[in-house]
Amino acid sequence: MLSRRQALWLMGGLAAMPLATHAAPAAAAAMQLLAAWQQANGSYRIGVLAAQAGGPSPLRVRHVLEVPTRAHGLSQLPDGSMVASARRPGDWLVRWHPGQPAGKAQWHWVDAMRSFNGHVIGSAEGRYLYTTETDVDTGASLVARRDARSLETVDEWATQGIDAHELIWAPTAKGGPPALIVANGGVPTAPETGRTKRDLHTMDSSIVRLHGDSGELQGQWRLPDARLSLRHLAWNAERTVLGIALQAEHGEAADKAAAPILALFDGKALRLCPAGQSMAGYGGSIASTAEGWAVSCPRSQGVATFTPDGQWRGLVGLEEVCALAVGSGRLWAAGVSHSLEDARSPTPLTHAHAKELTGARMDNHWVRFA
Prior knowledge:
This protein has two helices and 28 strands. By secondary structure, it is mostly beta strands. The relative contact order is 0.12.
C-alpha cells in the first residue's frame, strides 16, 4: 500500500511523465553520463546527460525522469536500464530504461523498518541489486540483496557498522567468488531526526569486505583518526588500489580544516594522503585516471588532485564542483554553470550547461553510460 506522501506524489499529475523523452539528439562520439540533479525550481531528476567529447559543446539532457526526492547513487545494468536510490535516509528505489515513458519506470518503496543509504549496484549478470540500508530500530547498517526484476529483498547481510554508504565490487581471481567492499561512514544519527548527526565522539567508520554470495565478513579496516568518515569509493585503472573520499567530523574547526580528504587501500591497510592545502575536511566524489586521483571538494570550489601513489598535485578550480566521471581516460567534472572535460590538464575543455540545466545542481555522482 502506498503511503500518503507517495500517493500524493503519484496523483499530482506524475510530473515526470512528459519529461521522460528525448530532449536532444545524440551527438556522434558524445560522452553520455547517468546523473542526478536538482532543477532551479526545486524538483529532482535523474537521467542521461551528454556532451560532444573533444569540443566546447553544451552539456545537454538526453533522457530525464522526475523523482520525488533527492537521488544520489546510480548504476547501469547489463540490459541498458539504470537504477537509482534516494539519498539517505531514503525511501525509494527506481529502475528505468532511459528513453522509455515515465509510466514504465519500476518503483520500490522501502518499508518503515528500513531506510536506503543512497547507493545501489548490480551484479555482473544483472540478476541482483545490492543496496546499502539502515535498520531503523537499531541503527545498524546492512547490505540488501534484491531481485533485479521485482526489486524485493531476497537476503540481508550486516555491514558490521553504522551509516553504510557506497559499496563496490572487489577484484577477485578468475572463477573465484565475488566480494563486496562497503564503506561504513560511522556517523551516528537517529530515525526521528533524519540526517542530523549526534554523539560524534562515538563515531566508528570502517571499510569491510563481504563475501558476495553469503555476506560473510572477510575483513574490516579502520583509520587511526575516528573522526574521519569513509564514504565514496573508486578503483584505480588496474583495480589494485581503492581510493576513498573522506569527510571530517571533528569538533574543532582547525582540525576539520586540516583533515585529509583521501585515503588509499591496497587490500591490506588504509593509508591517509595529506592535501597540500585546506580542503575544509570535505571530499565528495572520487575518480581515478592514469595521472592519479581526483576528489571533488565543493566547499573548496575545486577538484583536489593527487598522483597515483597519493602525493598532492593541486586544486583545479570549479565553482560548486560535485560529480566526477572518467571517459576515454579523461576526467569530467560537474560545476554549477559549466562542466570540465579533461579537468586535470592545464587547459581543460569547458562545456556550458544548456538552457534546460540553467540553475541546476548536480548531485555527487556521474556514471558513464554506454
